[in-house]
Amino acid sequence: MKKTEELKLDESIAGSVEVLNSLQITEECRGFDAASKEILKNKEILAVILKHVVREYQRYSYQEVIRFIEANSISSPEVSPGRTHTRISGENKEYQALNEKTSYFDVLFSAVNPELSDEKVIIKLHMDVESQKDYKPGYPIEKRGIYYLSRGISSQLSPVITKDEDYNNLEKCYTIWICRDNIAEKERYSISYYEMTNVRNHGECRTRKEDYDLMSMVILRLGDEEYTDDVSVLKFLSLIMYPSRKNLLEELSGYIDFKDNEVLKKEVIDMSGIGYRVYQEGKDEGRNEGRNEGREAIVLNMLKKGYTCEQIAEMTDIPLDLIQKIEEKNVLPAM
């Protein structure tokens, strides 16, 4: 596929309110699995990850990778002035087949495969991005990833193959695992790549890579401490998964730059995550007053950002009835 614009490969992406909101939620709900999954639904975040770990995207800029993410994979909620449609709605997140285990996916979407597409024919890459809190949940992550890839391949065809739908229609699948906790010290901040290859031939064989290059798995292991090496994608993931540094926005600016968006100035003021720290102090020291203040701060901040009571209950350990009471006694300013 021809490049639509000439862009520097290291050009950063303009930061949006949605990305900043997700960073705030990740900070406030640090340690909650749902918060880490939430941030991966932003297409700017996905573009940075995909550029660095998906072979088909490595020679393209972040901006171009965003354009490869298909328009029908982006949700269309109401947008306030200064905000953009940056959230992944995604494809069906549940695969269920007769007599087979149901599979649930965190962020499932498709994007253009620039190596095989042209102006007339668009070939897709099918992406599955998983935020895995526990790297050792009792089984090898590698086996689960291979199973997810197999389901991604099989789901592209109906159970009965017809003349109009055959194996020529199969498109490549990626599963990308971002593992955060329970990682051995020697394995922290490491990356493993797995894919199908033609390892041996006897006699004259003309194998085409595009005919068997249908499954790729990437496992990224983090470490919950400040990352100081120079692997770009690991530095980026360390920043967004553990966004507690005072100079966070400055460090992110090489990937996602917020400085030119005037609408974000007010949002930046709220980046301290103070609500969750008050809550934690109250819980750790047994001070119910501090605990309640912290919970209320979290709920009000998330309600202000547009989350429903049910979503907040799912992403935190705060009971739904308490969230609803906080909502009822507070009148939130219009966004």
Could you describe the 3D structure shown?
The structure is a single chain. The chain has 335 residues and is an alpha/beta fold. The protein folds into two domains: 13-271, no CATH class; 273-330. 36% of the residues lie in helices and 14% in strands. The chain has 13 helices and nine strands. It has helices at 17-28, 33-39, 43-53, 62-68, 141-154, 209-212, 232-241, 248-252, 264-269, 274-285, 288-304, 309-315, 320-329, and strands at residues 13-14, 94-95, 103-104, 107-112, 124-134, 173-181, 190-195, 215-221, 256-257. The strands form three sheets. It has a five-stranded mixed beta sheet with strand order 4-5-6-8-7, sandwiched between helices. A two-stranded parallel ribbon has the order 1-9. Helix 3 (43-53) packs antiparallel against helix 7 (232-241) and helix 10 (274-285) runs antiparallel to helix 11. It is globular. The chain starts with 12 loop residues before the first strand and ends in a 6-residue tail after the last helix. The model is unreliable at 1-9, 74-85 and 265-291 (pLDDT under 50).
Name the shape in a single word.
globular
List unreliable stretches of 5+ residues.
1-9, 74-85, 265-291
Number of helices: 13
Please compute the radius of gyration using only Cα atoms. 22 Å
Strand order of the largest sheet: 4-5-6-8-7
Q: SSE string, helix = H, strand = E?
A: EHHHHEEEEHEEHEHHEHHHHH
Write down how many β-strands occur, each being a DSSP E stretch of 2 or more residues.
Answer: 9
Helix content: 25-40%
Give the CA-CA distance, first to last residue.
40 Å
Number of domains: 2
Kindly report the average pLDDT value.
75
Q: Main β-sheet, in a few words? A: 5 strands, mixed
The oligomerization state is single chain
What share of residues are in beta strands?
5-15%
Which structural class matches the secondary elements?
alpha/beta
